[in-house]
Amino acid sequence: MSRDAEDEEVLRRAQIEDQYRKLARGQVRSPLRKVEINGHAHLGSLTAEMAPGVTLLCGVSGAGKTQFLRTLARHLRRQAPSDGLSHPTAVRMTGQSRHQKSDRNGPATGDVELADAKAPCVYIDTARECFDVLTQVSRIPAHELESERATAEKAPRSAWFDHALGTIMGRPYDLATHQELDRRSPASGEPPTWFYYELSRHGETYGPGQMSLGELAACVILRALRGVARGSIVLLDEPENFLSPRARERLLDIIVARAVKMELSVVLASHSPEFAYRLPNTSLRTLERGVGATAQATISAGAIPAQVSRKLGMAPRTEAVLLVEDRFARMMLEELLRCHLPELAPHLRVQDVRGADTVATVARVLGPTRPAVAFLGVLDGDTRSEAGRQGEWLEYLPGHHDPELVVMQMLQLRTGAAASELGVAEEALKRALEEAHVHNIHDQPAVVSDHTGVDEVRLVSFAVRRIRSVPDFRRDTDRLMERIRTLVAPSP
């Protein structure tokens, strides 16, 4: 490295350290100060103070970090819950509005409800966005995709984006750009458009299919940060996905710098020890779920010592990604892993990619081409005999039916034990099961949950821990667990 380059690096590090000091001292202007949630179906009721500038939300998998971020995003966007249930959830997010000149320059008038002030909000689920891009690319014939791209405007070049991407990945890029394309036949709840990313390096230009997942994840985050309005609330769900530890540190530096410059409130839901150890203690929050049918989630502030990092879910890097069809399948597979492969669970990520077609498509694309991270599609059991649902990169959840039906069967087979363990009267559970029977199978566990007050995750957990008592389920479970074990630690 030349002397000039060394001097430039010293100056850059000094600027970064100054930004972290500002976070630690609360010398950052940002909108969000306090969150109050009441009556949430999974989080219960909680109150949390948010840190100036950047808040890191840690917690074990399943604690509710994603639920928390999505609840905030829906509130700011005035959206109804997307799970089909009518939850009587009350949300209040208070702070100082910063996104208009009058807000920034006028006298402070006390905290306001940020949804009423129409504070802009950006929400990014990094893994979901990456898989969505790859799914769209794989679904559209190459000539049709090129035709669509030819008529779509490319984002103007951004020196900040190019430099930030090069900093994160540790190598320079000639150009990084993206295009917003119309989504074909969007499903309910999906946005009408998606983003195609393109990079140039050493004279070679390539798209998402040729990128590493780390490059694609960095592009997703940087695109969101590039277009964010001053005074926005930015909610990032596991932005560290697919990045090396060193790249995570560089990404955090860029997030902090952007938060300070643009007066943002950034809330990060993360398992990254690099984030936790780099941010000041004032930015750290821990989300924990209590026990029992009426347990409430809590968010506490303060330091997160290294010795409890594993307890907080800051596990080693992901070795394999397991793709499933929907939220319920994700809950079931996560419980199966906790029960049968506890030693490997920290190295596995279960990702809902919406639909059997998407699982099969993405697994076939990524399975043989991403040696750094293994991929396996885990389809619902009812697809075992369907055409196009078999292959080297596919496995199945236990049974020959939807996972919801498997859980309902286990609750019906072991009603007495379930009632005792879940803390409800046996007659109440029987009535809930009878009431659920008249509903669509995909809604039945949610109906039982609503009638008994028992979280769906606990219903799934009960069923999974007894699933091997049924010979067919035991055989299917053992096959799936062995397939996942060899995926992470293949035989020599």
Write the layout of secondary structure elements.
Layout: H1 3-25, E1 32-40, E2 44-49, E3 54-58, H2 65-77, E4 90-95, H3 101-105, E5 112-113, E6 121-125, H4 126-139, H5 142-151, H6 159-169, E7 175-182, E8 193-201, E9 204-206, H7 213-226, E10 233-237, H8 245-262, E11 265-269, H9 273-278, E12 284-289, E13 297-301, E14 320-324, H10 327-340, E15 348-352, H11 356-366, E16 374-379, E17 394-396, H12 403-413, H13 415-422, H14 426-437, H15 444-452, H16 456-465, H17 471-488
Parallel strand pairs: 3-11, 3-12, 6-10, 10-11, 14-15, 14-16, 16-17
Antiparallel strand pairs: 1-2, 1-4, 4-5, 7-8, 8-9, 12-13
Helix pairs in contact: 1-8, 4-7, 4-11, 6-7, 6-8, 10-16, 12-16, 13-14, 14-15
